[in-house]
Write a structure and sequence with these properties.
about 250 residues, Spore Coat Polysaccharide Biosynthesis Protein SpsA, Chain A, 8-stranded mixed beta sheet, two-stranded antiparallel ribbon, binds cytidine-5'-triphosphate, binds magnesium ion, nucleotidyltransferase, EC 2.7.7.60
């Protein structure tokens, strides 16, 4: 990618302010170690690995920004990459909004990447960046589903939930991050869509509600989100395989 010729300056916003309730008790999820290194550092390096990304904004747990700043100071990033740390909010949507608001004026394209997806390959990051630079207002990496999905009528815990519908699996995609945006589009989405309840779990969904087009690029199995304890086992195995392969 010839970013020298590009009129774009691209930043990555990394929401890392969640607790990680589903992962179980312990430090905030983004600070939990993977192969001895905090998950957040893996995620920051994954964004910085793309030559197009010149700035990384980490959205830290609300009371943890100074600690996260120290952590980033202690871990080397490529020289071309600057970073900033801002405190996050109550929901992912709020945390992303706070990160986007901290972007300098000259940033024209924004990646939003979950700290909880530490192992996304650079090829996926580059594919998203490229589609944004080519003019797509919103780009999401996604994969076909393995499981069939049912829509249900939620009931109290323990009560059987009636199935309402079975969407055709071939038409569904599981979306990952980094999601890429034209900066103005992402900002408009956040200013138009007030965070309610849990907030949006996906920035592209907010852009869809604005009526702007969202396109898919191929996602990657290794871009999975570390959500539950078993995901940590998988992440450690992926890292171990990478380290073994690098040894050759
Ligand atoms: N996130 C955030 N601010 C919040 C909530 C979530 O920045 N208030 C971030 C998380 O740190 C994570 C990403 O959004 O990198 C995706 O969210 P998720 O996987 O749900 O992480 P958590 O909210 O931490 O996990 P859980 O829902 O199990 O508590
Ligand atoms: Mg969450």
């Amino acid at each position: 990618m010839s970013e020298e010729a590009s009129p774009h300056r691209t930043a990555a916003v990394i929401p890392a302010a969640g607790r990680g309730v589903r992962l179980g008790p312990g430090a905030p999820k983004a600070l939990r170690a993977l192969g001895g290194t905090p998950m957040l550092i893996h995620a920051v390096r994954a964004m910085a690995a793309s030559r197009a990304v010149s700035l990384v904004v980490v959205v830290a747990p609300p009371d943890g920004a100074p600690g996260v700043k120290n952590l980033l100071d202690d871990h080397a990033l490529p020289e071309r990459t600057d970073y900033l740390v801002v405190p996050g909010g109550e929901t992912r949507q709020e945390s992303v909004r706070l990160g986007v608001e901290a972007l300098p004026d000259d940033i024209t394209a924004v990646l939003v990447h979950d700290a909880a997806r530490p192992l996304v390959p650079v090829e996926t990051v580059d594919a998203v960046v490229e589609a944004v630079h080519e003019g797509a207002p919103a780009v999401v990496p996604a994969l076909p589903l393995a499981d069939t999905v049912k829509q249900v009528e939620p009931r109290e815990k323990g009560e059987p939930e009636p199935v309402v519908a079975t969407p055709e699996r071939a038409l569904l995609r599981a979306v990952q991050t980094p999601q890429g945006f034209d900066r103005a589009t992402l900002q408009r989405a956040h200013r138009t869509m007030p965070g309610v309840g849990e907030g949006a779990t996906d920035c592209a969904g907010m852009v869809e509600r604005l009526g702007a087009p969202v396109v898919i690029v191929p996602g990657h199995e290794e871009a999975f989100k570390v959500t539950r304890p078993l995901d940590l086992v998988l992440a450690e195995a992926v890292l171990a395989r990478r380290r073994a392969n690098d040894g050759f």
